[in-house]
Design brief:
By secondary structure, the chain is mainly alpha-helical. The chain contains 7 helices and 5 strands; from the N terminus they run ααβαβαββααβα.
């Protein structure tokens, strides 16, 4: 949905309007994909999957995770800790545990330390760019070097096959 006021100005809307506009648009899209008339128009051709394709929502904040649990067929998250909040929110709504895609930075290498050293400057650049954009919960006044632990936390680096052993307690909640 976005988090910078300047991103909304060209469209004649505002940050304040993003949630209701997003939810209204999603509702309209679902109606159209179910074959309902929307403003007197049918969407064609009809989707292959009854009800239309799955609609997933990316989420970073707690309200966004809860919105994904309520409205989406799945969630795309970048912080593994969000999986539990998503599952809890779906269960509170009486839904199944849902579907999760973990958008994580992956570096598959036999020598993880060497590989991370090679990619770390690029990951730091990305994190700092978000900080400069005013990304929520990112302190742009922190020096670049202090982001190293954050970048490492958001990047998995190691031999193939070790990810699930590392993450299975968070990903396989009962």
């Amino acid at each position: 949905m976005g988090y910078r006021e300047t991103d909304f100005l060209p469209f004649g809307t505002s940050l304040r309007e993003r949630r209701p506009r997003f939810e209204a648009g999603l509702t309209t899209l679902r109606r159209a994909l179910r074959g309902e008339l929307v403003d007197g128009i049918h969407v064609a051709p009809h989707p292959v999957r009854p009800g239309g394709p799955e609609l997933w929502i990316g989420a970073l904040s707690r309200p966004a995770v809860e919105r994904a649990a309520r409205l989406a067929d799945g969630i795309v998250c970048v912080v593994p800790d969000q999986i539990g909040a998503y599952v809890d929110a779906r269960r509170a709504l009486g839904h199944d545990d849902g579907q999760v895609a973990l958008g994580y930075q992956w570096v598959i290498a036999d020598d993880p330390e060497r590989a991370f050293a090679a990619v770390a400057p690029h990951i730091l650049y990305q994190v700092n760019a978000y900080a400069e954009f005013g990304y929520p919960n990112v302190d742009a006044s922190r020096p670049v070097a202090s982001w190293a632990s954050e970048a490492a936390r958001r990047t998995w680096c190691g031999p193939a096959g070790t990810w699930m052993a590392r993450e299975s307690p968070a990903a396989a909640r009962p």
